[in-house]
Amino acid sequence: MSEMIDEYLADKDEKWHEAFIKLYQTIDENIPEGFAFQMQYGMPSYVVPLATFPDGYHCEKDTPLPFLSIAAQKRHIAVYHMGIYADDELLTWFESEYPKHMSTKLNMGKSCIRFTNPKKIPYDLIGELASKVTVEEWMNRYKNSVR
Length: 147
Fold this sequence. Notes:
CATH topology: Aspartate Aminotransferase, domain 1
Radius of gyration: 15 Å
Oligomer: single chain
């Protein structure tokens, strides 16, 4: 497992550790090639590296383009997926698939999927979600949205 994950979890509630590690491993196994794993905004994240997308993110030209982050918070584990924020089709797909995997109500904001019970995380669905957008697709969607 990543040393970065160990360091991140060092000050997090123990009840989230096992689920967080499994979530990280699921995403890491499924995310398309080309995304880089690093800490961004205080969370373990997958980004489009500056070597691939030198324009950077928004006004911060030295910041890699964010795509997906995971966080262990006080009351939940969160998956921040910029693709579901930016792509209505992907969001609709996720919202329609979620009930097929979980009997619990979907708890999410614009890009944040929250899991309040560490034993009730649809890892297969999150893995599939992580696999659905390539680096090229994400860069193109981002470039077209900031014009």
